[in-house]
Amino acid sequence: MIRCKPMLGTYVEIQIDEAQVGLTSRQTHLAIDEAFASIALVQSLMGFHDRHSELSMINRYRADESLEIHPWTEKVLKIAQFICHESHGLFDCGVGRQLVNKKLLPLHQINHAPSNESSILSIQFLGNQIIRLTQAVCLDLGGIAKGFAVDEAVRALKLCGIQNGVVNAGGDLRVFGKQSHTVLLRSPRQANELIQIGSLQERAIATSSNHTIFHPQKGSTPIQGSYSIIAQECIYADALTKVLALSQDAHHPIFKNYQAESLWLPA
Amino acid sequence: MMYWKPTLLSIAGLAITASPILAQAKIYVSIEQAQQLLFPNQSLVKHPIIISKALQERMRQASSIRYPFTGERIWKTSDGGWLIIDEVVGKHEMITYAVGIAPNGSVKGLEILEYVESYGYEVADSQWRQQFIGKTAGDPVKLNQDIQNISGATLSSKHLTDGVKRVLVLHELALKSSVSK
Known about the structure:
The complex is a heterodimer.
Chain A: E1 2-7, E2 10-16, H1 25-46, H2 54-60, E3 66-68, H3 71-86, H4 96-101, E4 123-127, E5 130-133, H5 145-159, E6 165-169, E7 172-176, E8 181-186, E9 193-200, E10 203-209, E11 225-231, H6 234-247, H7 253-257, E12 261-266
Antiparallel strand pairs in A: 1-2, 2-6, 3-5, 4-5, 6-7, 7-10, 8-9, 10-11, 11-12
Chain B: E1 4-6, H1 14-17, E2 21-22, E3 25-27, H2 31-38, E4 44-46, H3 53-63, E5 74-77, E6 82-89, E7 93-101, E8 107-117, H4 126-135, E9 150-151, H5 158-175
Antiparallel strand pairs in B: 3-8, 4-5, 5-6, 6-7, 7-8
Helix pairs in contact in B: 3-5
């Protein structure tokens, strides 16, 4: 059973292996509905395009202001900040304004961040989902929230009793359960070419192409290619593809910290 | 325990040696399944309408989709809900989708029925395909069925967003008023 909906600006597929032990097909569909609802919540909290999202709220704030956020937003911001530290700034969600300048994102609201100096490191976590900004920011969580949404969808499916399946949000995908699944990679040279990279079990893979990645300090884009990371959770796979693309180092030490493996196909 | 089983081809040589296969059509749910998902336990009555030129034009303006909408795949529920099936054609894809509209005119839900990549969906080189099947690690890849788990450049869902816009215009101008008839 496989269903697909347009979400997160792309197509999200949820695939459940047939014959889940002890579940009717109605229960399986309700589980898939729950998983889609989790993804919709991530979108409404962390979407840059949505001016009512919590992310947009954070982007409107000035330095020294503090606000309370949803635990999911807090979790994503914390992980994003941690990876920013560990990658020495290569992965920094503060690149929002650069993406706006390149017309990859719309700026539909007031933003107080200096045009090229926003960083996720400006967020202080005060506990109980309260954050404070040491400097105004222009954050884009596009490089991490999709992976998190996939993880939350998998969690929702498991809570509903689903034992095996795959969630794929436009290339950020996670396989869970005892069954392994063949994974194909879209060729960076030709979109209609698919390359079989192997089979995954209890793992996530995310792939980024170079087009939407910018070096947080230099503003440059990596050389053309397809950059994939295989990790246990999709949030890490998603974020680490940017470290791979920007460092051009398939053996960057950060990958070991997450037991992640890299896969880099030059165009 | 090995969680990632790479293909027999060594990863180092992947870019050079891996043979490509072509993207395929993906079928998600049938019309009947979509009806059940969007309007569970409700009976739907088919309600095709003829789309006038003027309506066609209004739908085009609202969505910037040029090719005409066909009014055949429309159903209604007894309480004023609607289910409409439409297609959007992008540069690289064709998507068949179902939209459920609640009696108050809001979008109740959306299901994608079918996704077809518009460039070549058959495998040209059958000799090569045999080689490929022999090379898979565990599950043989069944074309048309297993080609689901694709990682790679993100495909934009903008066309579908436009499609939903035109369906909402259709509802506003032609369907809403026909409930009372």
